[in-house]
Design a protein that fits this description.
The protein is α+β, with helices and mostly antiparallel strands and about 90 residues long. It has helices at about 30-45, 55-70, 75-80, 80-89; strands at about 15-20, 20-25, 45-50, 50. The chain has a domain at about 30-89. The protein has a two-stranded antiparallel sheet.
């Protein structure tokens, strides 16, 4: 069987959720290149003196999940304190 005969396609569906009356679009699939970017950026931001800070890893991973998978827009001011943003989210 030929691969092309399988007619496989990426499901790039978007779900809409509502939080406090505001609609937010959430990707149901993120391409592997974007997933790799998410992981690499998380690791870079979590590094402290050459070692991964596990708390920062938790914070940045979850924040970047929101950045990559949703259409929420955050100001520079909101992004300035990742710990506070993590707590709020």
């Amino acid at each position: 069987m030929l691969y092309k005969d399988l007619n496989l396609k990426v499901k790039d569906q978007v779900e809409t959720i509502s939080i406090q009356g505001q609609d937010i679009n959430v990707l149901q699939y993120l391409p592997v290149r974007d997933k790799n970017d998410l992981v690499q950026i998380t690791l870079q931001n979590s590094r402290e003196n050459g070692v991964i800070n596990e708390i920062k890893l938790e914070i940045y991973f979850n924040i970047y999940i929101v950045y990559f998978y949703t259409d929420l827009i955050f100001s520079d001011e909101e992004k300035a304190d990742p710990g506070q943003l993590y707590d709020e989210l």
